[in-house]
Design brief:
The structure is a homopentamer of 304-residue chains. Chain A is α/β, with parallel strands linked by helices. Chain A has twelve helices and eight strands. Helix content of chain A is 40%, strand content 13%. An eight-stranded parallel barrel of chain A has the order 1-2-3-4-5-6-7-8, surrounded by eight helices. The longest helix of chain A is centred in the middle third of the chain and has 18 residues. Chains A, B, C, D, E: This is Fructose-bisphosphate aldolase.
């Protein structure tokens, strides 16, 4: 299986501000080789504090930011409230990805929509290096979702701020067509983010074996590697971050990581798989991920 | 059967900016005789990557833009994300039609609406020569649809940007009245676009034999030529582009093309029928289309 | 004497809109080799109709636009009033450079300032491919001048519209320091336009022999070639257009042209030297200029 | 002497709103042959009531509007205050030209500027068919003057409202260069209005014998007919209205009228020469003017 | 002589965005110890190309940016035109300080004012880490100067963008009171920048021996060290950068550097003293400056 080429940040479409900030994230933090591991920490809003029960110290945002620093992450993704209260203490030490929308998981997901609660201007003011937006691909609420994303994209373009889209298949129609992590759904989600202007897209690892109700083209046998290859290709020049999702077995996560990087992904965005462990164990696990990423340097490095 | 006259771009209602940009599309690219073939490439959003499975190279937007250049197309129609990332490399080589709205085909079509995700100002900034808007004629969501289109039309008028309307009959009521490609539905859609301010309208080729549930006037025997003649006439000074739709037999497509041009259409907008083939075969098929269009020069040429 | 390299339009700083429009001007009109000859026609405002007395037909803007078409010019530079009334008839046939400011030569030049009378938005609406702004380098009115230019530059950046600065040394201090066409003054003017964001700059050919009152660095013997070389270098990535100024001897103009192109200039902006002659003589003179420019193809051509 | 052709209103640059309103003025009032006589009545502001002393009834705006109706004028030009108080009674009976700027003649004219006191939006609200703006060509205040005019032009374009510029040479530099009604000054003023976007321009009849201080090109012997021919040509597609100025001998005025129409002017704008007489005498004088204009029908009539 | 403490960036008044960006400049580039050497390159506008004559390669902005990279500078300070055209190629490699105002040195300096030609929003868009503003302390134009600075300060606060003030005593009154580099004038300028909201201030090294016309308090004998100590103290929490000014002897510059750092300055902003030499010599000279700065680590480093 031939490795797919990485994507880099040298496309002129990026503009100087986006290129500056992506260069900082990808080449001046973490492994500094064009790959990235982000630490997302929006679970307190998205799931509630239940995600912190097994390891209560992680309910403290300062603990998480320090973990990002110690682990050599390329950025932390948090909501406006935590950014306002906690980022100053570590300002500039680790890139900030300001998550601009979010929701609780209390009401039904059938017409999933993640409302905006912060702006690109907030991100500029806080010194963030990117903004994050959750798009629920396939949701009946897509009119509002697209309208929100359009405003974010325009502001991000105007301010030279990279836009990372959390592209999540969601809603009743998705559940009827293979579910949210089917190859079909993840592939479509990656492409949608790219078509709508994402600079990076966060996707779940695709499951090609989930074929019930999916479109014909996906009703075939695909290996996980073939599936993630296709997803990265569908995203074209949009850089791909693979999500960790719920905490799973380490070896499975490492294998997914290898496959993703082999497919041309830029890196990972791993939350629960990292911080739902004891501190030193978190650091050790990140080191194992970085060991894999170190084998996949990307274009766009200084002098490249 | 007497050929209907073409329409040209010399109506003073166009204003200098729209005339400049249409002149460029129709007389400075492609056959340069006032006809046009556009290459649409919004399928990644509208259908998902499945449309690219048979010929995976077409999932790469750069391949498509190069195909448009090699084939001598009059323009490519893409969404904002691909335009931002890929058009710079070919800026000005082939006219850009920025598609301003779009949707996934995951949720139900019963209340079809294509949300805006870009603006006419984006099109100006990117150097586009036209904007595209999908109007779902007959959809229960027409209030929002018309409100969106009104904003686009006003901006297009203010910036001198030609407005191409993808006029698609859609929604439960349409399905009950002959379906989306009945003569009745296509004819009504063409007229609606014209009444609401389109400079060009993209329609499907009308099917006069689909009469179940259509209005009385359409409950008669019409030849395909009569039907497309009527559709072009309904569009009056709005230039007509005939859509290729799903990939179909070559001879059928060529015959449709001949009938459309005979009726006074300006040209074609063919996506899957072109790029769902191997590269050289795509080029050869386009050449056959152009051979037909070369027999139908339109008014508005330099010196006309 | 080693020829200096041309500049081209492939710098990522241009953005897709500016690149599209410059590509059109430089590679889809005129010689299509990256060089340019523009026909300026703002003399009716800047000098009054007296410039038209020797050849009254040139007081008719339609004559001038046709001359630009017949002569194969890369663009015409006119004020808003003529653009509104005359460009429609030739919309898109020859690129329009909308001149955004201008003044009469009736009041004193001591505090020269060229007031804005049109906007970049007007240029977009009219289908123009560039805007022109006259900057009076060295004038005591520089505060207002810079403020006006800043607005134009921001709008041009926002709309992807190339900005051509007419960089004219002017005012009492300039007259005391070598005059408006000294090497010192022209070199400084070219650099100022570049520092303030011009995509192209129009300068007079520098006179290195005018040394009375100029800064020490210019108090040396320089050949005309050395002087124009330095001016083009001072402009760095800003493309240089050399002005014809008052009608002068043909051989002198051709020699200036050769020297300018040798220095790496992009082309010429010749008004009175072209249209203050009988029609066929104008065309013949332009052909001689083009013969020179054809030897200096620039980077940035399609496929480059 | 060959008669110069009239200009008409069929240029596409006008847009539908301007064409509608000009068609109303030129073809549905007065002689209905494309010519025009306007009745200006801004003297109460520009000179003060002294202009009304010889015939006190003319200080009553209602008298003037009735005079315009009885005399078959193509429009009255008045300031906002009189328009607000008097036009309702005759709304639509005679076209209203709302004069948007004006000044008293009390302070010095050296830096002449006519401040705005109404807007194009006021004109729309009042049902006016055109707006008038006084531009002091050659005044040192040209920066402010051009800025004001730019706003008026943009609004007029946006609202489809014809823009009539009162182009008056004025200021110390003009006095030093032949004075305000020299051929040089009037010719330059007509051109300036055209370059800055006037649809019609009001000029004084040029005096070719005033040559002291004028540019060389005007230092020759020109007949009055040659001079007015040149002025109309300088205005190109901008329609020319010749001003009556101070009351003068009837035969002289009629001769000027003949020469102006022969030159291709659209008509007259006569105030004091009309209403500084007894009522019936005013009407008789207008009839003599119309007799001349009836011999010069202009293009642009309905069906033309 | 007791060394004065450095200032660092840990004051909460900074806000997270300013702290992030200052942290990047001071601790993630150059020596990474809280000190800084900036490379200013606005001489093409402020003095004209004559500053480049001795070493013509420095007229190329790309050369200068590469010099900043090779020399390990903490930032380059350039105008908008060069930033737009050249920064993309090196985006993020070296911090960009966008200079927001500037002027030519052609007209008289008596009422010195540096007009704005770019905005803080431009800086955000380009990915800059600070903005620069030249304040002419003591100029009669201070009303306009303060109004401009107020807008910049407000925008900088809103966007979290550090504000560096070039505090230059200037104007007729300054010349009469000790001149632009007297201790009195420099001390006053440093304080003025601090009082008006500068995050950093660029000052010339003070000359305590220039006492003619200065206020009594400065009419005493002060050592250069005492003078620079006082200036740094006057700036309080505003970080101080000492300017190199015209090229001078190396030993003198190194001594000034030592004295400045001893006084608690943050670093240097050296243009002509660096780039008006041959390339390798520039690098060697910077290394000698850095050797000094390495002895003065400042607070605010990671973990501080």
């Amino acid at each position: 299986m031939k490795r797919q080429p990485g994507k880099g940040i040298n496309g002129a479409g990026l503009g100087p501000g986006k290129k500056t900030r992506l260069n900082r994230i990808l080449h001046q933090h973490g492994l500094r080789n064009g790959t990235a591991i982000f630490l997302p920490y929006d679970h307190g809003l998205e799931h509630g504090p239940r995600d912190f029960f097994d390891n209560p110290v992680v309910s403290d945002p300062a603990y998480i930011i320090r973990l990002a620093l110690e682990g050599g992450f390329n950025g932390i993704a948090i909501q406006i409230g935590l950014a306002e209260k906690f980022y100053w203490d570590y300002a500039g030490e680790v890139p900030l990805i300001l998550k601009l929308n979010g929701k609780t998981d209390i009401p039904s997901d059938a017409e999933a929509l993640s409302p905006l609660h912060a702006s690109v201007a907030d991100a500029v003011r806080l010194g963030a290096d990117a903004v994050g937006y959750t798009l629920y691909v396939g949701s009946p609420a897509q009119e509002t979702d697209f309208r929100q994303l359009r405003q974010v994209r325009e502001d991000a373009q105007r301010f030279g701020m990279p836009l990372i889209v959390w592209a999540y298949p969601r809603g009743a129609a998705i559940e009827a067509k293979g579910g949210r992590d089917s190859f079909y759904a993840v592939d479509y989600a990656a492409r949608t983010a790219s078509e709508l202007g994402a600079d990076m897209v966060k996707v779940n690892f695709p499951h090609p074996e989930k074929v019930s109700g999916v479109k014909d083209a996906y009703q075939h046998e695909f290996s996980p590697q073939q599936a993630i290859n296709a997803v990265v290709r569908s995203a074209n020049r949009t850089l791909v971050l693979v999500s960790g999702g719920e905490k799973a077995g380490d070896e499975a996560m490492l294998e997914k990581t290898r496959q993703s990087m082999e497919a041309g992904a830029t890196g990972l965005i791993f939350g629960r798989n990292v911080w739902q462990r004891e501190h030193d164990e978190s650091i050790r696990f990140v080191a194992r991920l970085q060991e894999i990423l170190s084998k996949y340097p990307q274009a766009g490095a200084p002098g490249a």
